[in-house]
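[agent] plan:
  1. take the single chain provided in the ticket
  2. run structure prediction with default settings
  3. attach structure tokens to the ticket
  4. add a short note for the reviewer (M.T.)
[agent] executing step 1
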Amino acid sequence: MAKYAPGSFTKNFAWNQHGPGLMRLHTTIRAGYLGALATVEREAWRANSGIDDASLDLIPINFFLHNRAGQISVDELVFQAIKRPHSLRFDRLALFALLLSRVGNPPGKAEARPFMWANEFVRRDLWQSGDWRSSALLDTNLDRFIKDHVNGVKDSLVKCRNNLRGMFEYCGYWPTSLPTINSGAEEWAASALFLAWDRHLLDGAPATEAALLDTVKTEELYRLMGVEEAWLAPMAATLLGEYLDAGGIRRFQVPAATSAPTTPAAPPPRAPTSTPAAPARPKPEIILAELLDEQGLDDAVKRTIRQAAVQKRNQRLAAKLRLGYGHRCQFCRRSLQIGEGRFYSEAAHIKPIGLPHDGPDKMSNMIVLCPNHHIQFDHGILRIVKDGARYVLSSKIEGDPIHEKLLLLKHKLDDVCVNWHFEWWEKAGR
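[agent] step 2 finished; step 3 output follows
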């Protein structure tokens, strides 16, 4: 069995001393690139990074970023760090970049795929039957895997274990009492696909649909995201067209502004006339990556999730439930009127049906909601807490008037689904 070198991953980067999650990485990337989406010479990046330790400043460029011909490349991870504030979404994308383990061709003894032991751990041990299994992150299981796959003395192997699990802690995945880990991939899967395709193109792969789609399967990206292949594959097929239309890795290039015309030699003096205003210097167009991030990626993910959930839904049950509540939202107790004597409501599944959750399509797994509260419930902003025989609403929005109000209830709920929804979004960091 091949074993890997741990490299500088055994060092203590002191992540938790510089803000929540991977904020230090986010800040360091911004500093290293001087806040611009342009490649930087490797040594200049290290000098700009603000990391005083000459060994610690290798961690971002040797494990998270991409190296090519002495330059640090620009890709989706860099874009998200520079153009977006630090967030849990960034942290989880950064963890994906770390696990993807494609950092180009760094100089010296640094490896092109320096974290393949962790990549194998996630694909072989952590991922099982479409989910990440939390038991794989226990000491005994991690230690056994690392001992078999990493070269090093005991102290180095323990540091590898603690630092890898620390990454999952910073991303809100650990610790957990649930048998499976909610990777929250619906929030960052689109950016992760773009990042994986960026790295493959930067490494010289052909920019063809077949080659890029093939990476989803051959690299087992779905395992690195903690989802089923059947969930990710149609999303990748949808997003690839947008990725290529935007120029692939070239989407970060901003068209150069038209230079101002050269000033000719002054003509002979003439009678004074009014001086025309100088033509305005054209502004660079918005980069396609930013336009896609604002409008395209999340919508494509939502379309795919909706399509997967449509399968075999029992419309009669949903209609019966809505009529039973008179189209009154069980959260706010209001009815949305859409015409004379006509009202509108939506039947929301507590545990989603279809991939990847496979919740039951039965009335006890449904509640009647208005459109606004349906969206908030599906995103974990609103949750239901079982309190004895009562069901109490919990809102993440400060000052929300329905927080701690009782759920309007005329039918029996499946407590397994109710508890699943609460715990699922609890571990997603909502």
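[agent] step 4 note for reviewer: The longest strand covers residues 382-387.
[agent] ticket updated
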